[in-house]
Amino acid sequence: MTAQFKKSLLAAMVPLTLMTAPQGMAQTSADGKRTFSPDYFTQYAPQTALDMLQRIPGFQLQGGNTDRGLGQGGANVLVNGQQITGKGNDAFSQIGRINASNVIRIEIVDGASLDITGLSGQVANVISKNTGITGTWEWRPEWRTGLKPNLFPAKVTVSGEKGEISYSAELKNNSFRNGHWGPENQFDGDGNLLRVLDEFSTYNGDNPGASANLTWKPSEDHIGNLNFEFNQFNFNRHQTSIINPQASSDITGEDLFTFAEDEWNAKIDGDYEFPFWDGKLKMIGYYRFERSETYARSKHFVLNADIENHTEYHQVADEAEAIARSEYSWSPSEGRDWQVAVEGAYNFLDIGATFFDFLNDGQFPNASKVEELRSEATLTHTRTLSPKWDLQLSVGGEYSELSQGPRTRDFIRPKGFISTTYKPSKRFSIRTKIEREVGQLNFFDFIDSVSLEDNLNTTGNTNLVPSQSWLGEVEFDKQFKGGHSFKARFYGAKITDLVDRIPLRDLAGNIAGDAVGNIDDAHRYGMDLNSTIKGDGIGLKGMELNTQLHLRDSSVDDPLQGFSRRLNGDLKSFWSVQFRHDIPNSELAWGFYTDQQLGAPVYRLNTFNQFTFNGPWAHVFVEHKDILGMKVNASLRNLFDASDDFERIRYVDSRESGIVSLREDQSREFDLFFRLTLSGTF
Questions:
Q1: What backbone torsions phi and psi does residue 252 show, to the nearest 5 degrees?
Q2: What is the tens place of the pLDDT at every residue in 299-309?
Q3: Domain 3-159+181-681 has CATH 2.40.50.100
Q4: CB contact set of 150 (below 8 Å; sequence gap of 6+)
Q5: What three-state secondary structure class fits 40?
Q6: pTM greater than 0.85
Q7: CA atoms of 649 and 667, how far apart (whole Å)
């Protein structure tokens, strides 16, 4: 651990009156560390530490790794100097359970200056202390045109401390009641309108869950964490399509498609850190299990006749991931940190599925299990080269064994990175990183599946191998006086064994279908721009403007026709503008948010698919920070009447033929809707 960071932790309990930053302003030290006291956030009336982090200029909270094991780095947020164990959104959940009244201060430091391997860019260290039992609550109902109101999204958290143990817990339900409607026009290969489908779709889900965290700190250099989580997910989708023929040869009818999922998942993880030899040893364990049962049904009715077609697809999937990791770190001298880490993991997917064709009395069962055993070892060195330069270097490799049925394959993959941070001044940082990354396979791609909605079969591919990438990036981060910030990130990736859709050919070279497979080479590159303008610094007290712009390009040789195209479904562009005005000397705030995202099309063997969100998306809100002790936020959403648009072109045999058999042009709107958020603390 660097000396500067140790000083930061030892000062955790310094009274706020000793901090030198003016009230409501951030303090920037000579090494670029920014410190935010609770006074800085007063105008926003935050209720959790997560609310606070979301108001820090130039900082974006990133969750932990979602793909391959626990790995290095993790979420870019610490709690009292300790890293949050877990994956995905675990960091959001734990930070969201810290009551804002318990936050002493938040420090924004550079990841390369810490002894936590893999962290780069800005890292938030939330310094907090429990003071009795505290909690938060939130209720977020929503009303949409033509749909049932969503009255059940809510959460409540509680945290406290007793002796050497601190704890937090959360109960929540992330429910939704969504839907959209509109026409789908279908054309033949010559562009003649065949039929118009009047479609209406609903998407209803409830996601209740509970989570808890226990932290044990028997002494200053011993600390343990234990986390539990259980969630249930019940989802129902219903789509009705009324067929209005435009040609005399067609028949009036109705299509019904339903999809339901009944899932539960549970997770437990923990870690314990203690002194060992001349350093510290951290032991980490993680286990997650998920069971998902899905039911899809497609029915086609002909007017005044019996059912013409009825198919169903039932699937039960069990997934699990178990990880054990240990990290030994030591610091032989000031500004020199080392870490050796080893990790072992076991993943599996076990699927049983049956396709039913009731018209032809057909029943086609399918079952398969995919397993992976993986181990990795890394050596990481962090070094302060000078007051302006920090370096972090990691080298390692992994061994993995994939098995499906009687077939087993194994791989050895090198991995590692080198990152640097240069600080020409305390408000300006330049970060670079070059990394060798190994991708995580989606085990569902190994197994045959059926999409009744699209009338498409997907062939599993037992020959898949993980992708590998060389990643490079450079980031410029400038903080200005008055709280303004600007960040620019430029990146690129050279990918080998890209996982994408490929055609399958028989022994004679004829196309026999398509599946997810590997493509030799691909490239991806782009830039991300982020800025914050604080009105207080330019005479507009209480105002704040945040903007984002993401541009990306990619290239891969289409495995069917050979032309260069973007990666399937890859991001093309995204922009957003967020404005907030906290009216001075009042409890009122208002603002708006708008964004637009464009994605690349998806190429399959015999289809071309393009989804377009015809926006931009926008909402406006008003907020009162104290009505009977509650914060009340009312927002009107989808101001520009955005719609979900989709185009699919189907080809005879394959895209290679160039002969179009059907073109589907779909546009679905969902109108203006209203959301009310009530929240408070106790």
A1: -70, 135
A2: 988 876 666 78
A3: no
A4: 141, 142, 143, 144, 175, 176, 177
A5: helix
A6: yes
A7: 15
